[in-house]
Amino acid sequence: MLGTPLPENLDSPSGEVTSVRHIDHVTYVAAAENERAFCETWGKLGFSEHVRVHTERHPAAHIALVSGMSPEYPWATMTGLSVTSEEESAINEYVRRYGEGIQHVAYNIDPRADMEEVYGQMKAGGWNFMTEVLTYQDGNGARLRQMFVAPTLPYGPFVEFIQRLEGDDGKAFDGFDIDNIDGLYDEYISYSRHLDAKK
Ligand SMILES: [Fe+2]
């Protein structure tokens, strides 16, 4: 994928990470006026809106479209879309520089794994993260853990690793959290400025 950094020494036996399971979601960015067309296009593939959150510090709408069903989550496949009318946002900076497209791909981490341990192992294996492990817990005790790999292009695409843990009702966290998203954007903008400054 465009600009995705590859770790240098993944073949190190001691650094082997076996808890990556499958793709959790793929998130796109688009111009704000294209939100409806995007949702209609995916609607024709059987995707419907599952969650929509509005971030405040970095104002934007983050929409999760889902299709199907799985034993673990109330969906089988998730497509995300982030849009905003804020011209100066990192979302629209991506669109200006690279066009509309995939902003990030998220890999799902086995809920039995210790996310902090995975983070440490991956860092030792050469992955360059732009965030720590970001966490959220809802009212039922369901938890979300996310960590984001730094882009190699300023405001460019990146990779996420996500873990969804079940709460008291046995249901895994299936949404997103505003603070985690704003926290991601703090680091994404900061790292992109750092990359721009190196040019
Ligand atoms: Fe994501």
**CATH homology superfamily name:** 2,3-Dihydroxybiphenyl 1,2-Dioxygenase, domain 1
Percent of residues in helices:
10-25%
| Helix-and-strand structural type | alpha+beta
The fraction of residues in strands falls at: 25-35%
Kindly report the spatial arrangement of strands forming the biggest sheet: 2-3-4-1-5-8-7-6
The SSE order reads EHEEEHEHEEEH
Bound molecules: fe (ii) ion
CATH hierarchy, class = Alpha Beta
Mean pLDDT: 92
CATH architecture: Roll
Give a count of the beta strands, DSSP E runs of length 2 or more. Answer: 8
Domains (count): 1
Major pleated sheet = 8 strands, mixed
Short descriptors:
199 residues, alpha+beta, 2,3-Dihydroxybiphenyl 1,2-Dioxygenase, domain 1, 8-stranded mixed sheet, 4 helices, binds fe (ii) ion
Would you write up a description of this structure?
- The protein is of the alpha+beta class and 199 residues long.
- Strands 2-3-4-1-5-8-7-6 form an eight-stranded mixed sheet, sandwiched between helices.
- The model is unreliable at 8-12 (pLDDT under 50).
- The protein has one domain: Roll (2,3-Dihydroxybiphenyl 1,2-Dioxygenase, domain 1).
- The protein starts with 19 loop residues before the first strand and ends with a helix.
- The longest helix is centred in the last third of the chain and has 21 residues, at 178-198.
- It is built from four helices and eight strands; from the N terminus they run βαβββαβαβββα.
- Residues 25, 27, 80, 104, 106, 160 line the site of fe (ii) ion.
